[in-house]
Amino acid sequence: MRGNVLISAEGVSKRFGSTEVLKGVTLPVAEREVVCVVGPSGSGKTTLLRCLALLETPSDGVVVMRGQTIAAPQPDAAVRKAARAVRPDIGMVFQHFNLSPHMTVLQNVIEAPQRVRGLSRAEAVARAEALLAKVGLLEKRDAYPGRLSGGQQQRVAIARALAMEPKVILFDEATSALDPELRREVLLVMRALAEEGTTMLVVTHEMGFARNVGSRVVFMDHGEIVEQGPPKDFFDTPRTDRARRFLQQFED
């Protein structure tokens, strides 16, 4: 990890009934870092992301952003106030896009900046058009999501997240619902964001992206961080049997 810590999970556990999905996970993410979280299905990766995005409340532990606790098992008024203040600074890109089908591409991108950030319509439209151009979809500004491919919908979802000018963007399996060609166009956008210094926490099965774009790889299994380190170290010389077994499935 390098630089100043922007957001971190500190001893975060999460239980759903009697099932413990996260077990005391501590994960700091520094500014401009691209942290790729990998591991088998059911290892707690998405739940960790949802806790950091304030979509789930930790059963134990806390989430901290720039030194302030923003999530806790029984948040007091100060924690709730801090959470409200930073929520717009945490962007999230979901596996299944979550675009509003009854709104055009442009409307999807401008809604939150107007409603949450207080931008005028003219300001929000200018920002949205610049971002749609950035992800290669300005010509689709007036189309509805149902008329777009999955890859195009996901690129709109990324533009929508960027429109809030978040401090960190969380990606939850952003390419897993797409076929290989469409995955590539989304990964190219994500790579460009990483090269620009965007702070990113990426839950992914895209091992090529993790190896070539990530600044750190975190391997989870059974609700725990098993090992983490620079991509070259993780992929070339994994330290644990669990990581080695996981990586074997991606070998040619």
| Helix percent band | 25-40%
Structural class of the helices, strands and pairings?
alpha/beta
Which regions contain 5 or more consecutive residues with pLDDT less than 50? none
Radius of gyration: 18 Å
Kindly state the number of beta strands. Answer: 10
Distance between the termini: 30 Å
Topology order in helix (H) and strand (E) letters: EEEHEEHEHHHEHEHEEHH
Q: Could you describe the largest sheet, including whether it forms a barrel? A: 6 strands, mixed
- Shape verdict: globular
Proportion of beta-strand residues: 25-35%
- What would the average pLDDT be, to the nearest integer? 94
Number of helices: 9
The spatial strand order of the largest sheet comes to 6-7-8-3-9-10
